[in-house]
Amino acid sequence: MERKVAPKRNDNKKKQVQFDYMEVYRQLRTNIEYSSFNEDVKVVNITSSNPAEGKSSVASNLATVSIAKYAKVLLIDCDLRKPVQHKIYKVSNKVGVSNLMKDTNEIDIDDERYFHKFKNSAAEGKLYLLTSGKSVPNPQELLSSNRFAELIKRFREKFDFIIIDCPPLNAVSDAVPISHVTDGTIFVVSAKDTDKREAKNALQTLQRNGAKILGCVLTKVDKTTRSYYSYYGSDE
Ligand SMILES: Nc1ncnc2c1ncn2[C@@H]1O[C@H](COP(=O)(O)OP(=O)(O)O)[C@@H](O)[C@H]1O
Ligand SMILES: [Mg+2]
After folding, report:
1. What are phi and psi of 202, to 5 degrees?
2. Is 2's pLDDT higher than 80?
């Protein structure tokens, strides 16, 4: 009988595959949507154990892909200590969420002092960015206040999907009160930077305080060996 010879494999050469970043974020969006069968997930917050693990990048990319699915998407920068969303989107951070809470009870999403709307781009009329705003001496107090909870409640009436970028948990616990007003928390782990024990501590802090962890996103994975990003459900 003729023996079949397996085609030669070139295992030594690591294959560089063109990677569709946005496709993985679309998968993330879908996973969030299906992460909770009993409740709609409308407001999510994104945190991690330490700085520079990719939280803000995940938040802004998730916002970008979400406009294809939801009519009005709001991205809020609640890292009041080290905000970056205004830098990512190259907009002013003169006023933002801290000012909105202090200045007014009325929420007018067309008020361009607060909400950046990206004119003449694919995101026009769909993506709204509320930057962190004027720095405040007591971010945690602000984010734990009833007023903040009320603000998010009002946003639920005005937007279809809301993403909140948070500071890391091992530095400050601002993400804890934020997670109390969201439908779920996405936890970012960097394959390159994250210490396992620190991630575990941060996750325990969230769980002890009643946060609903929707899943984890793995960032900064070596692209020659694995996919750039992974999402695990909270059971894993
Ligand atoms: N998936 C990724 N792969 C490689 N670099 C990344 C990735 N996500 C973010 N970065 C880089 O890591 C740095 C920190 O990212 P950022 O999203 O601001 O993190 P965090 O919000 O957790 O502090 C930035 O320079 C960013 O460009
Ligand atoms: Mg950040």
Report:
1. -65, -40
2. no
Which whole number is the average pLDDT over 207-219? 96
Q: E strands along 2-126, which residues?
A: 43-48, 73-77, 115-116
| Residues making up the chain, counted from first to last | 236
CA dist 161 and 72 (Å) reads 7
Q: Residue 230 in 3-state DSSP? A: strand
Testing ligand 1's pocket by substitution, the residue of 23, 55, 57, 172 carrying the most ligand atoms inside 8 A of its CB is 57
Closest atom of ligand 1 relative to the 228 alpha carbon: 1
Distance 200 CA to ligand 1 centre (A): 20
What is the distance between the alpha carbons of residues 194 and 188, in angstroms, rounded to a whole number?
9
d(CA 181, CA 35): 17
Structural domains of the chain, ranges and CATH numbers in brackets: 21-233 (3.40.50.300)
